[in-house]
Amino acid sequence: MRRFLIRRIILGIFIIIFGSLIVYAVVRSLPTSYVENIARQRSMQPNSKSYTEWLEQLNTYYGMDKSIPEGFVTWMGQAIQGEFGDSWQFTVPVTQKFSEVIWYSVILSAITLVIELSVGIPLGILAARKQYSKTDYAVTIFAMMGISLPTFFLASILKYIFAIKLQWFDLYGIVGRYHEQLSEFGQFLDIAWHYVLPVITLGMLSIGGLMRYTRTNMLEVLNSDYIRTAYAKGLPEKVVINKHAFRNTLIPLVSYMSNLLPSMFGGAMITETLFQIPGIGWTSYQALIGGDIPFTMFYMTFLIILTQISLLITDILYAVVDPRVRAN
Description:
Elements: H1 2-29, H2 34-43, H3 51-62, H4 68-80, H5 94-129, H6 134-148, H7 151-165, H8 184-194, H9 196-222, H10 225-232, H11 237-256, H12 260-266, H13 269-274, H14 280-289, H15 293-321, H16 323-327
């Protein structure tokens, strides 16, 4: 296991470097440029330099006059030292802006994850146990709706019903109009209330896929010979399902859930944008379309690192849930 972990870590480092290089090249090639926008704005001021002069000066200041390989090497050298620079668009250090917005996304994703696991897996197992029954069809229809509905459509429907018609929730934002006048507990409830619709949106969309995946793998396990042998020995159904079948269903589920860590810290860009939640998804989108290279590079590299960590944890969990992996 130690040799395997060392190989995976070394491979992960190469993937992080190569992935960061691709991201840097793509960001440098985007048609949207923060430097060009600033040069254009300053050139329009009275008695100002020309656009070309401002562009040349700003490119030199931000290191944009270097080639992509040279610029990436410079950025990587600073990143290894923990220096990610200031965000061009938000005018604060990249790490400071990241720490300000990341927890909005983490809270949203963590609540959604708890709902997804506590609802998706049990319903998937229930549908497999009652294959071709009304329960199975109902669960399957619900799962297909969750998989098929676009995020913006479901969010718009929920906002129209509960925010416009019933007026139970605000259309946008994470706090209410009188948030500052509330007590600490009241402010907590106010924020929690504004999370309801975004959590329902993400929960309904994520539960469907997990339900279908759990049902498919549980059916495969239930049709195995050792499960039929367990039933033939007279073991109770709860023991067969919970002790024998579910443990083997966990093996493919571990692979399915390998993206949970990146998704938790990566933010839900569409949902956050629709509900105006100032999380990392919405912030990174604003930085990307604004040509903010420092923030975009930090965010994308952070996601690449999280993905590699998540895959490494997945490999370790494989050995935990499947003794045959440890034996090999």
